[in-house]
Amino acid sequence: MPDVVVAVITGPDGVLLIRRRDGVPPWVFPGGKVETDESPTAAARREVLEETGVDAAITEELGSRVHPTTGASITYFAGTAPASTTTSADPAIIEIRRVPSSALSSLIPLTTIFPPVRRHLSI
């Protein structure tokens, strides 16, 4: 069971990203801790909804790894969501964006993105 899930959500208006108040790192994919008695897939969907207000469909598991800095066990999921208004009830989130995958490198260094995620996004 992973400690943390990350959701890579795509739609007609791009890839969903959030900017956290602490700014470390500045832009990330939505995600968070898996709660007790919660499946990783359900956790990914819940985290996207809590952090962005988007009700995403989680479609596949992209892979897992131990984070090189934190040591947390992370599972990455792909999902889709239609174009919609984004809003966060989480005070730790200060901005939500949807960006074309071709523009991700302007917000996230591509070398820091887990290789299966890069392959999924064709970047």
Describe the structure.
With 123 residues, this protein is of the alpha+beta class. The protein has one domain (4-121): Nucleoside Triphosphate Pyrophosphohydrolase, CATH 3.90.79.10. It has 2 helices and 7 strands, in the order ββββαβββα. Strands 1, 2, 3, 4, 5, 6 and 7 form a 7-stranded mixed sheet that branches. The radius of gyration is 13 Å and the shape is globular. The mean pLDDT is 92.
Features of the shown structure:
single chain; 123 residues; alpha+beta; seven-stranded mixed β-sheet; globular
Compute the number of strand runs.
7
Supply the CATH superfamily name. Answer: Nucleoside Triphosphate Pyrophosphohydrolase
Q: What about the largest sheet?
A: 7 strands, mixed
CATH-defined fold name: Nucleoside Triphosphate Pyrophosphohydrolase
Distance between the amino and carboxyl termini: 28 Å
Strand content: 35-45%
Q: How would you summarize what this structure contains?
A:
Pfam families: NUDIX. With 123 residues, this protein is α+β, with helices and mostly antiparallel strands.
Secondary structure layout:
Blueprint: E1 4-11, E2 14-20, E3 27-28, E4 31-33, H1 40-52, E5 57-66, E6 73-80, E7 93-99, H2 115-121
Parallel strand pairs: 1-6
Antiparallel strand pairs: 1-2, 1-4, 2-3, 2-7, 5-6
Protein name: NUDIX domain-containing protein
Pfam families: NUDIX
Keywords: Hydrolase
